[in-house]
Amino acid sequence: MAPLADFEKHRPQLWAVAYRITGSVADAEDALQETWLRWQLLPDDEAANPAAYLTTVVSRICLDQLGSARSRRETYVGPWLPEPIVGMVLGTVPGPEDRITLDETVGIALLTVLEKLTPAERTAFVLHDVFSMPFTEIAEVVGRTPTSVRQLASRARKRVRAESPRCSVDRAEHRRAVDAFLAAVMNGDFESLLSVLDPDVVWRSDGGGKVSAARRPVCGHENVARFAQGISRGFDPLSMRVLVRDVNGAPGIVSVDLAQGRVMVFAFTVHEGRITEVYAVANPDKLRHLRHLRHPDQLDHPDHPGYLDPLGL
């Protein structure tokens, strides 16, 4: 049996790979569980390079998951958005530079664009462009030649560049825009809200048919401003917390209805000080991993891992 220590050593990296390939916390966890089961069955003498073996296995599992997921998403109600990560992104090691720039590779914007790629293109792009895996090793994952894999990654890269929204990698600029957006919404200041929204801003809501949400993107700063204000009017100030928290590595917003136990997560892209994209995830099936945020004691204590950093509004 292959040693547990080797698997645990590489778990953060494996999770990071799985999440970026699938865009799903649940699928990433399932992929890691299946990888662990296969790792247990591997004889010790075949585990000469644990990192390479485990990455190949988890990537193959995720590639298979993508194939079945595509058919499910074709019948999905409304826009499909990735499952958000609130707090520190697993599989990363925080450093001083993290306070300055954002990790675009795990951002909701990029993961949403990756949904438009074929499973093989997405896998090749993530493994090569994000994790620097050689084409020869990726070829073993997708079952193609290294030359074919290079072409897959090239096509994916071109589409990502063409369809990714304009965005800043400056964390302070991003945070200022999110703070201004939240303050304007909570204060009912329509003009201030317009000023922080790009004229061509797009709002995408993911309710999955489980909760009320716009089934088509809302476009234009006036429409988005009215839509945001409409949502805020439904907030009960006695039971609702609307707070800033890192969402997929960038400042975002989490709203928690303590009375009903409902959570909504908002991610943003920011360019030149204005918000260009809003991603609102409300489907409860995609927020199950955030169930700890539904309890007030996990929101109010600064030392608790579920603590949300309030704006003091």
UniProtKB/TrEMBL annotation:
The keyword Transcription applies. Residues 178-277 form the SnoaL-like domain. Keywords: Sigma factor, Transcription, Transcription regulation. Residues 109-159 form the RNA polymerase sigma factor 70 region 4 type domain. Residues 293-313 are annotated as: Disordered. The keyword Amino-acid biosynthesis does not apply. This is Sigma-70 family RNA polymerase sigma factor. Belongs to the sigma-70 factor family. ECF subfamily. Residues 295-306 have a biased composition (Basic and acidic residues). Interacts transiently with the RNA polymerase catalytic core formed by RpoA, RpoB, RpoC and RpoZ (2 alpha, 1 beta, 1 beta' and 1 omega subunit) to form the RNA polymerase holoenzyme that can initiate transcription. It comes from the Bacteria.
